[in-house]
Amino acid sequence: MKSIVNSMNGLPWILKLILCIPGLDIFWSVGRVINGLAKGSILWTVIGILTIIPGAAFMWIVDIILVILRGKAFAMT
After folding, report:
1. What is the DSSP letter of 7?
2. C-alpha closest to that of 52 among 28, 16, 68, 74
3. What residue ranges do the domains of the chain occupy?
4. DSSP string, 8-74
5. pLDDT at 53
6. CB of 3 closer than 8 Å to CB of 56
7. What span, in angstroms and rounded, lies between the C-alpha atoms of 22 and 43?
8. What is the model's pLDDT at position 42?
9. What DSSP designation does 77 have?
10. Tally of CB atoms within 10 A around 8
11. Greater pLDDT, 1 or 70
12. What is the pLDDT of residues 50-67, one digit of tens each?
């Protein structure tokens, strides 16, 4: 699972930004769940699950800002 997270972080900057568009942001939400599972962290896994449905309304804005500022979406370390 760690290789999936690394490949997501290795995407070109412009593709990361495109994947932050509403509707496509589910890519980063699923990535947060995978990242939580890879770390073995229940907290990050639950946060990832909550960003899939209820958090989809605002997480795309957070992801765009973070991709522009630091090159990674929220919780994708």
Report:
1. H
2. 28
3. 2-70
4. HHTS-HHHHHHTTSTTTTHHHHHHHHHHHHHHT-HHHHHHHHHTTTTTHHHHHHHHHHHHHHHSS-T
5. 83
6. no
7. 24
8. 94
9. -
10. 19
11. 70
12. 998 888 888 999 999 999
